[in-house]
Amino acid sequence: MEIPDFEDVQDLIDDGIEERVITEEESVFAVVELKQLKILLQRCHECGRIPGGPSKGKLRNITWKQTGGPSKEKLRNITWKQTGSNLTAHYRCACKDKCSWSTQSTIPGTDTRLGNLALVAAAHTAPIGYPDLASFFHAAKIPIFAKRHWHNQSRCFVFPTIEDHYFRMNADLKNSLVAPIKIAVDGQYDSPGYSAQLCAVSAVEDSSKQVVDFACVEKHEVGGISGRMELKGVQKVLESVQKTNEHTYAAVERAKSEDIVEDVFSFFMHVRGVHSWQPGLMKDLIPQGTAKIGKEFSKLSFSSILGCHHAALGDQETLPVASSSVAYQVILSLATKTTFLNDLKKMHHGNFTSFVESFNSVAIHYRPKRKYFPIKGFMIRTMLAALSYNENRRAEDRGERVVKRVCMMYSKSKGEMISKIQKGPIYEKWKEEIIDGAIKKKIEQGYGLPDMLDEDKYMHDGDDFIADELAELLNFDEEEESELEVDSDVEFD
Questions:
Q1: What pTM was estimated for this model as a whole?
Q2: DSSP 3-state assignment of 191?
Q3: What is the mean pLDDT of the chain?
């Protein structure tokens, strides 16, 4: 028989997935098929015997026959019992009456399996809620713990660890800043439209481009009017930041808006082919036609900007737009709305919030608007988003995350090719630290769960807590985790 080269064998391994050497420090858990474990456990893990075979250290007698098949092998009878994501094999051996071997070790001084708590903490930092996690495990026929265990481990060990990690990072950041600091503030609601019940307002510091603080506001705090939550959150954030830095400069408080307003409305002069004008009220210089004009517009005037900023256009000048056109009328109606004018008055040249929007794009990944979160879960997910965003910024400052390449991509919005920066892998070491921290808290606690207030039960991340409470009331197990007997062909649903 021809023996293939090593390189040829490598190409056949696991459908082309690259094989590499790993260490126990790098990978703590592995996905193992039950049939493979059954093969492994045919030899007793304590004495080394196999069922019906000789004792450890002796050679097996083998008789070779030219015809006929081998005698039927005697397989060890193994009973599997499930404890969450852990499986324990029970079997008999000549060395002792009963032997058992588990896929996970217990956390020292507790009866909690290491993998169960590590999975809960890892899922939160991913972030993955219990319904999605359970659905994935069930589809792959991998055992998973009950929702009650998820909530208990979350509220008692994982959430406190996340809070500790966030507040420690936040304190280090504030202590490193030199007064006065400049921050940009923006809010994000928990759901689209007018159904929002929560709003998170984040403050990003200008020099470090890191989240320096955030505040969460509930709808009942502002009289049940969701539109007021963002302003309330801004007030909370400013108060919190000013407690640690008395010389805070906030763009929202000291904006000089005159030039911005005149810049915006000079557009309506330019499109009509007028590129210079005299000082005066805008209502007298800008034709309104049938457009619906807001009340505040009548008070505005041109005083400092009396012409377009561009050079002479010459042959490049486009045809002027008639003030009676539909497009002109619609845009003027929108621009003169009181709400839009109020927003303009809060703007200032040089004060932009693009990096706040960058954080918001991370936050929407951790607390998507299509999922319900109670206030505690909403705050925990916001902390995780801040940790993820800030740790990546710090990794870039340390030179651990650099630009790998610049590639050209087609932009649908701009209709042309644009350059995109591709950076190295995101920094995720902080997630491992949270998992280790949760395990340490469990070791400090020991057996059982700590006493916590009733409202702490609702610190989950968007699951149906009424069903969870009913399931807990109907659960009569005294132990923190119970074993369920399964066989090797079971589907873990």
A1: 0.69
A2: coil
A3: 78
Rounded mean pLDDT, 220-249? 82
**What is the enclosing helix (H) or strand (E) of 409?**
strand 403-411
Q: 478 by DSSP, 3-state: which?
A: coil
Q: Of 210-214, 242-246, 281-285, 425-429, which range is least confident? A: 242-246
Are residue 183 and residue 223 in the same domain, yes or no?
yes
Nearest to 230 by CA among 98, 176, 238, 488: 238
Whole-angstrom Cα distance, residue 199 to residue 483?
42
Q: Are residues 184 and 233 in the same domain?
A: yes
Cβ atoms 105, 97 nearer than 8 A: no
pLDDT reported for residue 1: 37
On whether residue 131 sits in a domain, the answer given is no
What is the Cα–Cα distance from 102 to 81, expressed in whole angstroms? 9
Quickly list DSSP for 305-361: --B-SS---GGGPPPPPPTTSHHHHHHHHHHT-HHHHHHHHT--TT---HHHHHHHH
Residues 58 and 89: their CA atoms lie apart, in Å, by: 26
Which 3 state secondary structure label does DSSP give 2? coil
Give CA angle at 373 (368, 374), nearest 5°.
160
What is the residue whose two structure tokens read 């808290």?
441
Whether residues 296 and 269 share a domain: the answer is: yes
For the chain, what's the residue count? 493
Whether 212 maps to a domain, the answer reads yes
Reduce the DSSP state of residue 401 to 3 states and report it.
coil
Pairwise pLDDT comparison (32 vs 460), residue with the higher score: 32
Residue 211 near residue 204, CB atoms below 8 Å:
yes
* Three-state secondary structure call for residue 23: coil
CB 356 within 8 A of CB 186: yes
Q: What's residue 439's pLDDT? A: 94
pLDDT (tens digit, 9 = 90+) per residue, 112-142? 989 999 999 999 999 999 999 999 998 888 8
In sequence order, what DSSP letters do the residues of 86-135 get, joined into one string? EEEEEEEETTEEEEEEESSPBPTTSS-BHHHHHHHHHHHHTT--HHHHHH
Within a domain: 444 = no
Residue 419 belongs to some domain of the structure: no
| Domain containing residue 330 | 258-310+319-345
- Output the CA torsion sign for 148, 151, 156, 161: positive
Q: Kindly state whether residues 237 and 267 are assigned to the same domain.
A: no
Query: Which tokens in the block code for residue 61?
Result: 């007698």
Contacts of 5 (CB under 8 A, 6+ apart): none
**338 pLDDT higher than 70:** yes
Task: In whole angstroms, give the CA distance from residue 168 to residue 378.
Answer: 19
Tell me the pLDDT tens digit for each residue of 264-321: 888 899 888 888 999 999 989 999 888 888 888 888 889 888 888 777 777 767 788 8
- Looking at the structure, do residues 271 and 326 belong to the same domain, yes or no? yes
The verdict on 226 and 369 lying in the same domain is yes
